[in-house]
Here is the input.
Amino acid sequence: MQSTPIVTIAAAEKFLKTLEEFLNHSEAFFALIIDRGGTILSQSGRPPDGTDITILAALAAGSFAATRELATRVGESEFNALYQQGSHFHILMNAVDDDTMLVTIFSTQTTVGLVRFYSARTSEQIAIQMQELRADCVDAPLVFTEADLNTASQIFRDTTDKAV
Amino acid sequence: MAIINYANKEVQFKIVFYGPALCGKTTNLAYIHSQITETNKGELVSLATAADRTLFFDFLPLNAIVIRNFKTKFQLYTVPGQVIYNATRQLVLRSVDAVVFVADSQWDKMEENIESFRNLDENLARQGLSLDTIPYVIQLNKRDMPNVAPIHYLDFILNDRAVCVPSFEASATTGQGVFDTLNTVSRMLLVKFARDAEAAAYVKSQPTPAASPMDGVAAGLRQPQAAR
Ligand SMILES: Nc1nc2c(ncn2[C@@H]2O[C@H](COP(=O)(O)OP(=O)(O)O)[C@@H](O)[C@H]2O)c(=O)[nH]1
Here is the structure.
């Protein structure tokens, strides 16, 4: 099995720089790097008001995976980008590598062509950074130990359960 | 698989609620959502059809305890139980850290339970995962219904692997057993995560003859540092 991906401080800074540059060039206003399981690795810019980006990430990963299924049915291995057009906001999703994707949100202030162009380049950069990150983290470092868990309280609490 | 983020001091985990159609997976998430304090939960997103069946998945993000300054975050997913949605189940299982298998205790659901459990095993295998390594628990749901099979029978047919896992009687509509299930599987997951990390740290601490001078630099990068 693959080792635990670890976003080190250095890696986080690289991702951020890449995303910031991408937003500058493409004039999109929000970009997100997520793993295909739906977890956020990095983000930059401002999401549309009231957007819960954790949910955004989960749904983006889900819909991208669904289109991958669709792609295989028509004999493609994968669509490498997916574009959703709205009336105010548009979303572009790019495959970065087998485990990672880039989600970009933009509005009418820019064009899909521009975003598409820069997102392809950005995806390639992120793919390299992901490779470095994986090579760098051959194993999980100690975040906490089993002993820490033994002293930890209940993980989740049922608020009606006064007895706990 | 878990993702550790040193930049914002978070560890994220994914738990999938698996089981046959209508066994109560969504009801579990709805109950959890109703009981967790506002600051620790996100929205419960349900992608369901009008008939109230899970079409795609349900999703609930939760914050849990802070351990050694690291926030633990859990993302709970359900899968659609209908046989035809196997592609969806596979994509939801992607990067899963732990599983709750929800069984429907009613006698006439035994075949569906067994089929779903077998399907879980198969879908995990496709990802190179296995019930032997992934932490999981079994929830025997709908105990309040009149036509239910006895616990020992359900355990006999669903919990008969080499290692018996914890199983819980539950009634998700009232919430009975729901938090026992969630807390147990989360703790199992955290323990496994800590053990894997401790084992890796031990291996790393052993002197290797071929250690390159760059190793120290890479290790330095991995050390938790105060976030800016
Ligand atoms: N009596 C009873 N009904 C339940 C229980 N859990 C779920 N249900 C009902 O079973 C039906 C299907 O539940 P749902 O959570 O949508 O199933 P899912 O397909 O596994 O997500 C709903 O009508 C629920 O109210 C339970 O513990 N007891």
Remarks:
- Chain B touches chain A through 68 residues (CB under 8 Å).
- The mean pLDDT of chain B is 86.
- The helical segments of chain B are 25-35, 86-92, 110-126, 151-158, 178-205, 214-222.
